[in-house]
Design a protein that fits this description.
By secondary structure, the protein is α+β, with helices and mostly antiparallel strands. It has 2 domains: 2-90; 109-336, Bira Bifunctional Protein, Domain 2 (BirA Bifunctional Protein, domain 2, 2-Layer Sandwich). It has 12 helices and 9 strands. The structure holds 3,4-dihydroxyphenylalanine. 3,4-dihydroxyphenylalanine (DAH) is lined by residues 170, 172, 212, 250, 253, 284-286, 307-309. 3,4-dihydroxyphenylalanine binds next to strand 8 and strand 9.
Length: 339
């Protein structure tokens, strides 16, 4: 028995020393210590020996087993270590290489202009409010005094979701939501996205942004409207900016006007930018129609107000001299970085 054990021990020592992978090491372990392993067989053959000899033999086998296990364990550690070393050698990290820069985003020119507009109006005591982009026909049209047969209500201009629900075509509906709250006076601007069934080109997009303005109080006059919007234009385009009001028509204001500013490129003398006129149109405005006030439960005998609507993209394009609106929607970082 002792001879057999010595033989096994010797063989295993030899095998383990020459073993160069953990898989092979495991095969050796199974071959010796496994259920059908050599050492296990030896233990099974114990019954061939006299009962008084068996404890001694058992002890010998166990000692051999412990020794072999230790051998296997040591070789395993050695193998793992050398595998790790080899990997470390292969994976050279050059810490002096320049790092890849991750691209930072950039504020969108629309956002820059909107923040400026909000700064100007909040500075004059206005509140910034929001309204829903999915809107009822009532808020987008009816409550704004826009009759059922108005061309803007045509499906060719408006995205309808159902006969009564639509994507708002203007931010003017937010005026109605604010008036319905019943808290007076009102001094608000409402920036937001609007939708129109337009083909995309250099000056049109099916989705763009407006900034609505509404003031309702006692004793408000057209002079307040003029003074406010002239101040707005001076702050946004420069202190030398002059404004001009041209009569216009909007169903929800009476009287209505469009406001032009002196061309900030040529200062009013006329250039390619203002198509030679010296003026650039930037917004629509007017005194809130008494009927609009009434529909929102405000007494037109007691309260008056003015409203205005500005196209955000229009101002952004003018301010930064961008000649194609599509550039604003492509989110090309090379374009955005310039502002
Ligand atoms: N909602 C108008 C439009 O989309 C713009 C506008 C004009 C808004 C006059 C107003 C206003 O509040 O008073 O063309």
């Amino acid at each position: 028995m002792k001879a057999k054990l010595d033989q096994i021990r010797q063989k295993v020592t030899e095998q383990v020393r020459n073993c160069d992978s953990t898989e092979k090491l495991n095969e050796i372990r199974v071959g010796i210590l496994g259920k059908k392993g050599e050492l296990t067989d030896l233990l099974k053959s114990m019954k061939e020996y006299a009962p008084e000899e068996r404890p001694k033999i058992g002890q010998m086998v166990n000692e051999a087993r412990a020794e072999i296990e230790k051998l296997l364990e040591e070789q395993k550690t050695r193998l793992e270590q050398s595998i790790r070393e080899a990997r470390m050698k292969a994976e050279v990290i050059d810490v002096t290489l320049p790092a890849k820069k991750s691209e930072l985003g950039h504020r969108h020119p629309n956002t820059i202009v909107l923040e400026e507009v909000e700064r100007i109006f909040t500075g004059m005591g206005y509140e910034v409010v929001e309204g829903p982009e999915v809107e009822k026909d009532y808020y987008n049209f009816e409550a704004l005094n826009i009759p059922a047969d108005h061309p803007a209500k045509d499906e060719q201009d408006t995205f309808y979701i159902t006969g009564d629900i639509l994507l708002r075509t203007q931010t003017s509906g937010v005026q109605v939501h604010e008036m319905e709250k019943g808290k007076l006076p009102i001094r608000m601007i409402a920036p937001g996205r609007v939708f129109r069934a337009d083909e995309v080109d250099a000056t049109h997009s099916p989705s763009f942004h407006q900034i609505e303005g509404l003031v309702i109080d006692k004793n408000i006059t057209f002079a307040d409207l003029k003074g406010t919007l002239a101040e707005f234009a001076r702050e946004l385009f420069g202190s030398g900016t002059k404004v001009k009001f041209r009569p216009h028509h909007f169903p929800f204001t009476e009287p209505s006007a469009e406001m032009d500013v002196t061309c900030f490129k040529c200062g009013g003398s006329g250039c390619r930018f203002c198509k030679g006129s010296g003026w650039i149109e930037i917004l629509g405005c007017g005194m809130v129609h008494p009927h609009v006030l009434e529909m929102s439960h405000i007494d037109p005998e007691e309260y008056v107000g003015f409203a205005f609507g500005v196209g955000l993209e229009r101002i952004t394009l003018l301010k930064y001299e961008i000649d194609d609106m599509r550039l604003l929607y492509e989110n090309d970082i090379r374009f955005l970085k310039q502002f």
